[in-house]
Amino acid sequence: MTRLLSAAAVAALALLPVACNKSPEGGGSGKDQKFHMEQVGGETNIPANGTEKSIKIDIKRDSGFGGDPIELKPEVQGDSKGITAEFANAKADASVKEVELRVKADKDTTRGKRTIKVTGTPKSGAATSFDVKIDVVNP
């Protein structure tokens, strides 16, 4: 009976969503004038062969945030040689709820874990940022 309960507890924990990677709030100081960004999914493997991989990022705006675009900027931290990270569109208009961060690593890139700092800057109010984790792997 104890084994059955233990197995049920483990199965229930497996159904819980994976902890999400998100930024603190940015934007204005008034009520409902904030926004934040969230990475969809966890760490992403990037093959070191020039193949581009997309990482989805949700942009969540409060109802009073307004229609101003959010400027997006990725920055590879640490050893960035051979790694490129860019957004298809560096400005997310009010209607945009999800963006794609495009990342690739060339064949000479050192394998291993890296961090890409993603910053969102509104026209007015505070910017916010968070870290996107990648792992450069053999193709």
CATH architectural label: Sandwich
Please state the structural category: mainly beta
CATH classification class? Mainly Beta
- Enumerate how many helices there are, as a single number: 1
Largest sheet: 6 strands, antiparallel
Brief rundown of the structure:
Helix content is 9%, strand content 47%.
Q: Secondary-structure blueprint of this entry?
A:
Layout: H1 2-14, E1 21-22, E2 26-27, E3 34-39, E4 44-47, E5 53-61, E6 70-76, E7 83-87, E8 91-92, E9 98-105, E10 112-122, E11 128-137
Parallel strand pairs: 4-11
Antiparallel strand pairs: 1-3, 2-3, 3-5, 5-9, 6-8, 6-10, 7-9, 10-11
Descriptive labels:
single chain, 47% strand, 5-stranded mixed β-sheet, mainly beta, 139 residues, Immunoglobulin-like
Could you walk me through the main structural features you see in this protein, from its secondary elements to its overall organization?
With 139 residues, this protein is mainly beta. It has a single domain (21-137), classed as Immunoglobulin-like (Sandwich), CATH 2.60.40.10. The protein is built from one helix and eleven strands. The protein has one helix at 2-14; strands spanning 21-22, 26-27, 34-39, 44-47, 53-61, 70-76, 83-87, 91-92, 98-105, 112-122, 128-137. Strands 1, 2, 3, 5, 7 and 9 form a six-stranded antiparallel sheet that branches. Strands 4-11-10-6-8 form a five-stranded mixed sheet, with no helix packed on it. The termini are far apart. Residues 4-19 have low confidence and may be disordered.
